[in-house]
Amino acid sequence: MLRSLALPSAAAFSLTLGLQVLVKPCNGDTAVPVLEEMLPRARAALDIPGTQQVILDHGRRCIGIEVRTHGTARLVKLLLRGVEIPREAVDLRVVEPGPVPGV
User: Fold this and answer.
1) Which of 43, 80, 91, 97 has its Cα between 20 and 30 A from that of 56?
2) 27 inside domain
3) Which residue range is the domain that position 76 belongs to?
4) Domains in the chain, number
5) pLDDT tens per residue across span 32-57
């Protein structure tokens, strides 16, 4: 019986897609003073292993959060919901770690 390689091929392709995978972009509608008020609560995401950075992007009017895995992204989404930060105010990205120099 012939097996389809479509699903395994799609899975392999998704694993090799680039270094950054945007989980969900923010809409840029939140005012910067409101984002500044939310930022300390969003920084709690830094306590989750795999979270690389939490910053305020004034130009895009978003809180930018970078994580290493989709699992970490899910945990960050739960945390944001718990501290009442609207998902639309956050640019959450999964970023694969780069090579370590000298290794």
Assistant:
1) 97
2) yes
3) 20-95
4) 1
5) 999 999 999 999 999 999 999 999 99
Specify the CATH number for the domain of residue 28. Answer: 3.30.300.50
Q: Count of CB atoms within 10 A of residue 67's CB?
A: 24
Per-residue HEC secondary structure of 3-18 comes to CCCHHHHHHHHHHCCC
Neighbouring C-beta atoms of residue 91, cutoff 10 Å:
21
Tokens of 4: 């389809």
12 found inside a domain: no
Q: pTM to 2 decimals?
A: 0.72
Residues in contact with 80: Cβ distance below 8 Å, sequence separation at least 6, in sequence order? 42, 45, 87, 90
Closest CA to 60 of 98, 19, 22, 10: 22
